[in-house]
Amino acid sequence: MQSKDLVQLAEQFGSPLYVYDADKIQSQYKRLTNAFSKVEKLRINYAMKALSNVAILQLLREMGSCLDAVSIQEVQLGLYAGYSPEQIFFTPNGVSLEEIEEVSAMGVQINIDNLSILEQFGTKYPNVPVCIRINPHVMAGGNTNISVGHIDSKFGISIHQLPHLLRIVENTKMHIVGIHMHTGSDILDIEVFLYAAEILFDVAKNFKNLEFLDFGSGFKVPYKKDDIETDIEELGKKLSKRFNAFCKEYGKDLTLIFEPGKFLVSEAGHFLAKVNVVKQTTSTVFAGIDSGFNHLIRPMFYGSQHHIENISHPKGKERFYSVVGYICETDTFANNRRISEIKEGDILSFRNAGAYCFSMASNYNSRYKPAEVLWQNGKSHLIRARESFEDLLKNQIPLPVEKAIV
Predict the structure, then answer these.
(1) Fewer CB in a 10 Å sphere around the end CB: N or C, the chain?
(2) Do residue 219 and residue 295 come from a single domain?
């Protein structure tokens, strides 16, 4: 997409605005599948928590993707978007047995990540196919909030609890069809990923009727110029060779599953916001925009960096700005960032706004959530309308008005 296209979309649909480039999503999907083309059975489960707009789900379904869901509501969205139950994989954390039972009854593949629920479910439903999520105790991820495979993580069944896990499976005679792991997001060192994969292979040897191994995801994408990213091609080459060798050892062609979210949609997203005010203080020049962490919380939550461009005047002289929002708390997107000279009314574009941006948006300060637009084949498609005051009031119930005393 060109800057002029984004400016026109901001003029047409207003700001703040999320825009997603369909071509980028498609190219990332093809890049991943090409990297593992030597694996006989490959399945991509899009981690829909990254961006769950129904139109995005439909786009990925048309490409051949399946879904990874973490809540029953995401499962329902997937079914609404046209996925069959067999195309949806349910990987929750800390949910009730009742929610797992309800999803299982829909025909969706379930993934269980704790011994308590595993034993309860296996006792009641020994013939229902189950996947087990293990914790390999491998630290990987760009931030402690997104590193989920370490020893203190709440996710997965510890590999040190494998004897207990095997006793539950033996006692309940439950049907284990898959083993799953996820070390964390923003993985830089593929050798760490390959090391964790060896742990998964070792665990898998304890189960004789597996159908798949799920390696999670967490592939890092670049956030700025010359930024490092996960070498998908190198990982594909090394892991494919090792996976194929394991399948020969196991005596069966298993399906290799990945569940990418950020990798597929992050770079496709642009968040557009208008500059309300340029404010000079004794030491800082603030560019205050018509949005805040209610719409894009990642810089405040994860300390993530989003490249910011002044797409209204991209060729202007660069100056240093702190870009801030309109929320009545510390609400800073960037400190002392070099950006083309900003004037009030200019449109700023935040890159890498496709993953965990709109999906983590809120109505804090009673602000409306923004609209979403899909850019496909040079045309714009409104895929979510901007909220209104009526949306804020929906489901709220005022107290009854007392009758006036005469």
Answers:
(1) C
(2) no
